[in-house]
Model the fold of this input.
Amino acid sequence: MRQRLRRLGIEIGDLPTGPANALTDVPGVMVGHSTVIRDEPAVARTGVTMIVPREGEIWTDYAHAAWFNFSGNGEMTGLAWIDETGLLGSPIGITSTHQVGLVRDFLVKSAVETGLTEAFHLPVVGETWDGWLSDPDSFPLTESDVRRAYESATGGPVAEGAVGGGTGMICHEFKGGIGTSSRIVESKSGTYTVGVLVQANYGRRGDLRVDGLPIGRHLDFDEVPSAWEEPPNGGSIIVVAATDAPLLPIQCRRLAKRITVGLGRVGGYGHDSSGDIFLAFSTGNHLPADGQPWHIEVFPHREMDGLFHAVADATEESIINALCAAETTRGRKGRVAHALPLDRLQELAAGVCD
Done:
């Protein structure tokens, strides 16, 4: 049975988690998945993951946001407008590379269906490539698949591993996919939550570290074969961070940049062919789209260190949760992405690889 990292007795950092240890611990943030697995007419191991802030009211109650490009061989739509205004005004979709347009267009259509016809919409949709296990050229997703992810979004525990947009993803040469985690931060300004969700599809086996231990070096390919015939020079990861701390866009960018710390701890280097794109948003201020003046609280810059620690730790744990949750998957041309062996992970973490 697959288990999350903490159920294996391994804890990252010293900050407490939220009740679900997930992005959804940030109040009002919901997550939904649509998973597509079939072998005919073409092999599909793919899907969509949808992040819906403010319980769906994000279309008319914006959130401050910013992004950071650690390595740019990837795509996330809507970022030019976030750069221009510092505002997120849509749900966030994550999917496979060839299906970004479908998900983006569905979100525009969804806004129109709910009566938001007097505004233009620039939704945020990111991607990683699942073409080793799935056939991307068959364009397997449909609008119904995207709608299912959107309409299933809810709070509470989040399914991880080979689900949603993470269905066909590979991480550190094991089966990868979706992972999530959260942290609670005490500050002079109050108590806040930082949540992270990743779609992990990057990395080499030998670079994998868990809580600082070089786990990947001790899991050789005779024990667990690589998912790849020849590992690519790169891969990609999309990371979305949310907080209810009242951050300005420049502070959201500072938070997004610290995601890199957590990725680096696990063994991500931002290789030349990687698409490592990070988005952070804050629900701490309500920013209605009705044209009325906004009354904004500002989190002190000098209190940001706690949030920086939180987003780095939650990113690290999210990636490892993706590995811990994902099950061995057989896909296109009989290729197999093997699950990270959890018994060996526990054994190694207990001191075998000193």
Observations:
- The CA atoms of residues 36 and 88 lie 28 Å apart.
- The first helix runs from residue 79 to 85.
- The two ends are 27 Å apart (CA to CA).
- DSSP finds six helices and 14 strands in the chain.
